[in-house]
């Protein structure tokens, strides 16, 4: 076949595969919003929204973009935040723009892997990979539409690094050191992007030593470290800005190196977790999940086939098969994950990760494995010369994936990706408080959208108090914060003090020394909001009953408000037995619960775009009234009917007070 025809076939094949890839993911984007909507990704759109609306702010504070990085160690979240800007500018600030960026990253990774397999293996292997990746099982499809800016997006960098290194390994090294240099740049940047990419770097280094049988020339020893260090430049900047905090990942998690635990964790990974993280439809026969195990069995056959052929070639001093790199990655990933402090536990912060929408977190650390599993299966099937064998197997895998989609698609969510905002200010106060002085934080917030400032200032007070304790009260707040937001700030300070000292009595001792008695009211409100987290209902009510009734009234409201927000309706319903016979407690406490529900409704309303910002096709069903949001959330249905009248009273007071419908 001529080179022209070969190139033409490759382009036609790739075009068809991209089309299939897009059809599946656009279907999920429109019909699976419940599963692809995640609050974490919203912060990755906040920089784009703010930069487009007020670019001058970022020129005044050049380091400010780093405060839009979700975690100090998660450089990828900042990268995708920056990349989201043109998407927001062109397509608007809905969550649809975030999904388009995620889809764009997924397509690029898909194309690179296809070209890698076509160039260094065969068009047949690339075609099988393309089909199996385009029509993936549900979990990889869903993850390709969530812009977390870490594990899934790092797949693109893994594909690029391996593609470049294959060029380097298979060409005349004297003429192709540029591939080594580019590989080093990608390796360094990839580590900054997400630390899980380190597994890819170790895989490439390991394969390089095996492929070259431990030999390194002087240029390799010089060029690789230098180019990696250059790629790490953003990481070095983040070390300075975050004061070394980017060196630690999830400080609350601790690794367990006991042999029994590690053996159990490894067995769970290879026997249960890898088969289950595809989210393949359950179909049991003799207590065996048939569909999931068909997929997994084919992977195991492929894995051990290439493991055996690779070891045999190495021991016989033959050229190591390139397929062995993907085997090395899976081995190293399994070992490193087993030794890490991360798990696929079914609980996280008391959340059941077997249930939606939290289920998506359970296997997020395994996502980078997926393309390597599909590549090994594709390379193995491509080895089968008889069409009667590999075509039915490939078709069976596609049918399994397609059959699994029915559990995740619904016409009820169509269009929702266009009506929700693609940004969130929920954690911006914390980021600003960690990186700037109170004065600069206030200056920055004063340049952000007005409708979010009350909450931002409250959050600012909370995090400064949590970090500095009572010292925050020694500052002349009025010099930094507009008088319209001082009360919110002090309310946040009260909550932050209680969070810091884990006891409302300690917080009360601190504010007793505070000079401005007019602000004590708001400090105490904040303290009472957080007190149910750390103190018993009885201890709090005993203190409040010792106060004058006028003062205790608003503090009971604050307590009820915080109890509902922090502990939920179950706590509220259980508290009923503690309030029986105390009419003043009942009315004020449950009025506070109503106020909390009102605030949550307002928060929900703020996640929706204005009607003018969404496609006109969805205008007829677009209802942002409080009653619609309240009914759709069913929040009042969770409240005990005996206390519901008092909760409704608090809710209606706030609705009437704010003249809202």
UniProtKB/TrEMBL annotation:
Source organism per UniProt: Candidatus Schekmanbacteria bacterium RIFCSPLOWO2_12_FULL_38_15
Membrane-crossing residue ranges in chain numbering: 12-36, 70-91, 98-117, 123-148, 155-171, 177-210, 222-242, 294-315, 324-343, 363-381, 388-405
PANTHER family to which the protein is assigned, alphabetical: MANNOSYLTRANSFERASE YKCB-RELATED, MEMBRANE PROTEIN
GO cellular component, one term: plasma membrane
Membrane topology recorded in Swiss-Prot or TrEMBL: Multi-pass membrane protein
Compartmental location: Cell membrane
GO BP terms, alphabetized: lipopolysaccharide biosynthetic process
Positions of the Glycosyltransferase RgtA/B/C/D-like domain: 78-235
Keywords for the protein's UniProt record, in alphabetical order: Cell membrane, Glycosyltransferase, Membrane, Transferase, Transmembrane, Transmembrane helix
Molecular function, one GO term: pentosyltransferase activity
Stored InterPro entries: LipidA_mod_glycosyltrf_83 (IPR050297), RgtA/B/C-like (IPR038731)
Transmembrane helix found in the keyword field: yes
Protein name in the entry: Glycosyltransferase RgtA/B/C/D-like domain-containing protein
